[in-house]
Design a protein that fits this description.
Layout lengths: L1 E5 L2 E18 L5 E2 L5 E2 L2 E19 L4 E15 L12 E9 L1
Antiparallel strand pairs: 1-2, 2-5, 3-4, 5-6, 6-7
Main location: membrane
Keywords: Cell outer membrane, Membrane, Receptor, TonB box, Transmembrane, Transmembrane beta strand, Transport
Family: Belongs to the TonB-dependent receptor family.
Length: 102
Amino acid sequence: GLEFKRDGWLAGVTWFRNDYRNKIEAGYVAVGQNAVGTDLYQWDNVPKAVVEGLEGSLNVPVSETVMWTNNITYMLKSENKTTGDRLSIIPEYTLNSTLSWQ
């Protein structure tokens, strides 16, 4: 990955890849319903899977006492290698943003 730091600012980007054997994911087909009618799903075993993506970060010193911290993850690939299907519980984008005060 790459990282830049200056005057309290921090920016970075990282590429990652994880190859899994026996990855667990939520099933796609409902196996039943609960008392209020919500579908219930069963966890399934994925024999081989790959998860690959980019993660970016940006930390901004808003003031001497406030820091704004941001992180975004974009999945390039999230795949069951056996079927070619996308993994069910991994979102394409994830964004986190916080303000910290000290």
